[in-house]
Give the backbone structure.
Amino acid sequence: MNATDAVERYSDEWLILEGVRCFCEGFLKGLELPPRQTISEWADANRKLSSESSAEPGDWNTSRAEYQRGIMDAISDINVSEVTIVASSQVGKTEIINNAIGYYIDKDPCPILLMQPTENVAKSWSTDRLMPMLRDTPCLQGKVSDSKDSGNTVLHKSFPGGHITMVGANSAAELASRPIRVVMMDEVDRYPLSAGKEGDPVKLAIKRTTTFWNRKIVKCSTPTIAGMSKIDASFQQSDMRFFLVPCPHCGKYQRIEWANVKWEKKETNEESAKTAVYACPHCGACWNDVERWHAVGLGRWEATMPFNGHAGFSLWEGYSPWVPLKEIVKSFLDAKDDPEALKTFINTSLGQVWEDKGERVDETRLINRREDYTTAPPEVVVITAGVDVQDDRLEVERLGWTVNNQSYGLGKVVLLGDPAAARIWEELDDLLQTPIPHALTGEMEISACCIDSGYLTQQVGKFCQERWNRRVWAIKGMPGEGRPILKRAPGKIKKLNLEFFLVGTDTVKDVVYSRLKIDDPAAPGYCHFNMSYDENHFIQLTAEEAKTSYVKGRKLRYYALRPGRKRNEALDIFGYALAALEGLKLSGLNMRRRWEKMLARQEYAEKVREMVERNPEVVVENIPKPDILRPRRRRRLVGRFA
Ligand SMILES: [Zn+2]
């Protein structure tokens, strides 16, 4: 259609619409607020870096470390209520917090809380970071009175329209007062679990912001151990932003990752580090420091999860314009052979959580490999039990053992009742004397049992003493590296004249966990479970993990509950049943000989049956027994070992 047609056709509607548009624009113009400044704009316009706290004093320049822009502007963004920054050291996190504080004091005054791990850190932040900014940044000068009679202290400063309080996460009293609109929490992974008796300091601080619809919660920290890191947990709940930079060679946007840092192996760590380059995973080109820093200048944040009001940022030294690559590689090479130093490197340089790899057992795998048996399989040579005493029940595990140390779970039994009363012990006694159906021998008795005497020591001690000849042993768990699985306790339980045994619980857990990790059902040590074990049993069985810590340079390895796990009885009773087997072996049990005997007896019975079938007159006593079944001088297994 030509122009004239078009005008004729649309002119009427067009005139009406245009009129409405003009009216609306005028109306909105009248309502329009002055454009809101972001924190990065404020900082670029006003902020001065002080000589005592900055290597580059003078005018602030956000583009010096471009990734800071997105973080600071998220803090001033009205749609963001929570900001989480997981960062290594040396990325400028301190100044991000300072800029936010300066912005709020100058542009959006309100009550602010700045939390540091301890009160001392809070005090030095106030004197070394905050005061120089207030002094050197012109628009902040004079806003905070430093005269003594203004009520201002090192940790509390008021300004027109608001105040800032600095606290240590360890001081509970400070956390319970006044409402706060902006909470900034620095180094949250170094906070104590509880502020005095008041509970989680992070929760306490957030609670104080509830009266403000426009509250702002900012958390930042270098992360610590996976599963325990608060900042990592918080980041997982955010929209998880990562900073993408374009390759100077192929232009492809990508995260800067430690895995792409390459170096050549030379004589010394220092020489090796000097060869460090960043290799683009897309084109293979190597970036030098200048190229990398230039790429960071062109970078942008990208969220990996939907935005729900919580912006999360992840950063490491590889993005920092203040750290040459060779320095990062040098610290890695210096740290790599010492787990504790390596953990520090991963936390503070890579800004990542430390995973204690290979020390955990996955419960799902165990659940999925349960088997369909109800009687003890033929290869089970001996059955032992382990008993844990709780204040309202006894938990009993019964395990069948084969010659190659495989175990068959024969079903956990929970006896409910008060262990201080007699009834439950009678039930246990019955259970321990109940034979278990066996595929080869018809049935099999429980040969030995370990009962934890840590709780109700006298009761357990007495019960076991009376059943000494049935190899029912009272045990006490002893943590610590290198202890034997089972040994006789040097003393007797006081006054009672009772014997008891010590179980090296860490050694037992080492054995149990290394066996639970075996995947080949034919391999020695493999642990079989039948369908009677439920999911909860496996969650308990895998509840602990080995940890390593260093005390005065000495390495300490110990077991602790994994985060989120509460109960571990299934692990304990498995371990006690294993200790009972150890007791039998120490008393002279020869698994191989017992196994051969079982087979021989079976063969002999078969032979007798055949012969009787052929000739019903045969005298059974005259059929020769194999050597292994001839009676020997009997040795009683009563646990008389050292
Ligand atoms: Zn490239």
